[in-house]
Amino acid sequence: MRILEFIASGRRFLDSLVHPSVASDAFCGPRQRTFIAAHLAAGMLALFALPLHLALTGGMTLPQALGFAWLACHLPVAMYLSCTGRFETAHILSAALFSGFLGWMAFITGGMTSFALLWLAIVPVEAALSGSRRVIVAATLCAAAVIAVLLGLESLHIAAESFTFRWPAEQVRTVALLAGLVYAVQVALRVEWTGSTAAQLASVREERYRLVAENVSDAISLHTLRGDTVFITPSIRRLLDMGVHEALDDGLFQRVHVIDRPAFLTALNDVVTQKTTTSLEFRARRGASKPGESGQPQYVWLEMRCRPLGYQPVGIGDAAVVTVIRDISRRKAQAEEVERAREEAESASAAKTRFLANVSHELRTPLNAIIGFSDILRQFTPEMLPDERRAEYVDLIHDSGQHLLQVVNDILDMSKIETGNFELVCEPFVLERCMRECADMMGEQAKKRGVKLTLSVPDNLPEVAGDRRACKQILINLLSNAVKFTNAGGSLTMGAARNGKMVDLYVRDTGVGISQEDLPRIGTPFLQVDNGYDRNHEGTGLGLSVVKGLVALHGGDFFIESELNVGTCVTVRLPAHVAAHVAQAVTPIAAQGAAAGAEDAVVVPLAGEAPKRVRA
After folding, report:
1. How far is 587 from 603, CA to CA, in rounded Å?
2. Which helix (H) or strand (E) holds 133?
3. CATH number for the domain formed by residue range(s) 336-402
4. pLDDT digits (tens, 9 = 90+) for 301-331
5. Whole-angstrom Cα distance, residue 72 to residue 54?
């Protein structure tokens, strides 16, 4: 235990000598600690061995003194590195110290024939531990300088007094070679440790980067000015369902939508020429499908943030731009939704404004008639006003009142339908009788306008289950529109036909018709078609809106076919049920829940909405 504690305390001491700039570095810190430990060990060996040697021998020779001096000089080198953190400079000092020691040893032991010259080969090898070419070159120059000095001294016939060992020359050379071999093995082990540690740290760093690259949603890539991809992270599979190798070169560029490719290349070029950061939104094809193949290619919206590459890393070719690519399809969809909602709100606001203007006109005209004719009746006595004229004014007041009532009823019905509060009272009834009643009601109006009204009812028309009042209002609204927009001499037909489990009701006229551009807008609440056939006739424009709403409440469909200046055919398709099936639907829909013992009742909403429930 004490040995372990001693080793741990020694390690802590060495860690405290490592320069703070690399203390937290997993590679440079241990490398600097090993260098300091080796040089401290050499210096401490000289300090401890020198007194012992003097006590035992009483003196020392020149080579011994030189050896002790060389070992002691390792201490200031270690302290220099600890104080400055300059690892390369410390290595150069160590190489120069070692080369000088070997040169002096060679000078006093035979010059160019000395065994010490073999050790010079170790100097550049040890310098390789620094990982710096500059240090290796400096160490090689130190070793070469020693050899050059020895050659110069030999050429000048300058030699030191020959030093003789107590042992034979062969044994001395053998010991020197073995010592050199041991030192070389120690250097080789340090080189191996340095290489393995660097490889391990590189592997850890690469694994770290790989984990980050594979788990982030954004893809990081390097591009050339031609749009080629030099490098890209694996996240591209999550974005475009393609592998890294597929995206390299022009693989990613080929996925960019053809319309967006010029903007893609322009963005890369602007980043390099203007030395600035830019952002681009573009569409890219996802998956393996290609334009022209069967099926519809799926395109997603991507955002690419680009910035110039500040330097040219090794192995990336002519890459000039680094980008971060992310999927913004959801953001784009939300933006389009917001824009669509804004347009719908603006359209609804404009439609309501137009509707209020039309309704104001529809209310003002009959009110003026009522007030005007009632004032005449009030001011003129029966003797002053003939009975025929008085009866005519009364009829006009009555017609104006009926018109006002119709306008108000249309507005109230449309409001109830929109809010989901229109209650249907479903019961079986004979559709043919309902159609004839509607034809009789509108026949006089059609006759006044010079329009021929024809009723076409087949014999096999089934009894239907529905709201009789609502169905009657549907037919009256359709007939009223047809009469209103059909000129004198024209004709209109109201008919019905069995269509499987459904019944088709239709009203066909030879009126002014509707253009194909305006057909999709027909029946929209608070919206009137801005054409001559609508401007020149009275009405709120809610007739077909009410029809569509009532048809939807019955679970039916609404169709309209028209051609400008030819005529219009409006078809309403309603469910047809046998009497046995609809016997349970006699009560109002809004009360069915209560009748079944539930607290809530169903109110049928408009088509496309979820069923709504209100308290019974």
Report:
1. 13
2. helix 133-155
3. 1.10.287
4. 999 999 998 766 656 667 789 999 999 999 9
5. 16
- 114-134 pLDDT, tens digit each: 777 878 888 888 888 787 889
Instruction: Tell me where in the chain the CATH 3.30.450.20 domain(s) lie.
Output: 216-327
Give the H or E element holding residue 572.
strand 567-575
Q: pLDDT: is 250 or 3 the higher one?
A: 250
How far apart (Å, rounded) are the C-alpha atoms in residues 546 and 606? 11
pTM attached to this predicted model: 0.49
Whole-angstrom distance, CA of residue 452 vs CA of residue 447: 7
Which residues of 500-585 form beta strands (DSSP E)? 502-509, 557-563, 567-575
pLDDT, mean of residues 264-274: 91
Q: Residue type for 87, please?
A: F
Give the N- to C-terminal CA distance of the chain in Å, as an integer.
87
Helix (H, G, I), strand (E, B) or coil at 467: strand
Residue 307 belongs to what H/E stretch?
strand 298-308
What's the CA gap between 364 and 370, in Å, rounded?
Answer: 10
Tokens representing residue 227 in the block: 């749009």
Q: Are 603 and 421 in contact (CB under 8 A)?
A: yes
Residue tagged 């475009």 (tokens): 240
230 Cβ contact partners less than 8 Å away, ≥ 6 residues apart: 221, 222, 223, 224, 248, 316, 317, 318, 319
Token pair listed for 369: 């008639």
Cα–Cα distances in Å, from 561 out to 18, 313, 340, 513, 535? 90, 68, 27, 9, 20
- Helix (H) or strand (E) segment spanning residue 279: strand 278-286
Q: Which of 569, 573, 545 is nearest to 558 (CA)?
A: 573
Beta strands in 173-250 (DSSP E): 219-223, 229-232
Residues forming CATH 1.10.287 domain(s) in the chain: 336-402
